[in-house]
Design brief:
- Helices cover 44% and strands 8% of the residues.
- The chain is mainly alpha-helical.
- It has one domain (9-84).
- Strands 1-2 form a two-stranded antiparallel sheet.
- β1 and β2 form a beta hairpin.
Length: 85
């Protein structure tokens, strides 16, 4: 948790938003050509939100981001936990 000192919840959420900026979340579901790739994108996103380790599909670390546990507002943390579930 000391990796991101002084970040507000808004700052944390802005950094987390980057993991959603991928074709799997912009492509209409009926146009998705690879369900395994779509599933992997979801798993990678959940992993990044839970651990703060943002990784490529191959498992290489892209960068570190704050995890859900960095959020101070319990309501925001609960909503994001629902997103992960």
């Amino acid at each position: 948790m000391d990796d991101f000192p002084g970040l507000s919840d808004i700052d944390v959420l802005q950094l987390m938003a980057a993991v959603f900026d991928r074709p799997a979340f912009r492509t209409p579901f009926q146009w998705e050509s690879s369900l395994p790739a779509f599933r992997q994108a979801i798993e990678d996103t959940i992993g990044a939100l839970n651990t703060g380790a943002w990784r490529t599909r191959e498992g290489d670390e892209v960068r570190r981001i704050p995890s859900i546990h960095h959020l101070q507002d319990q309501r925001i943390q609960a909503v994001l936990a629902k997103v992960v579930r």
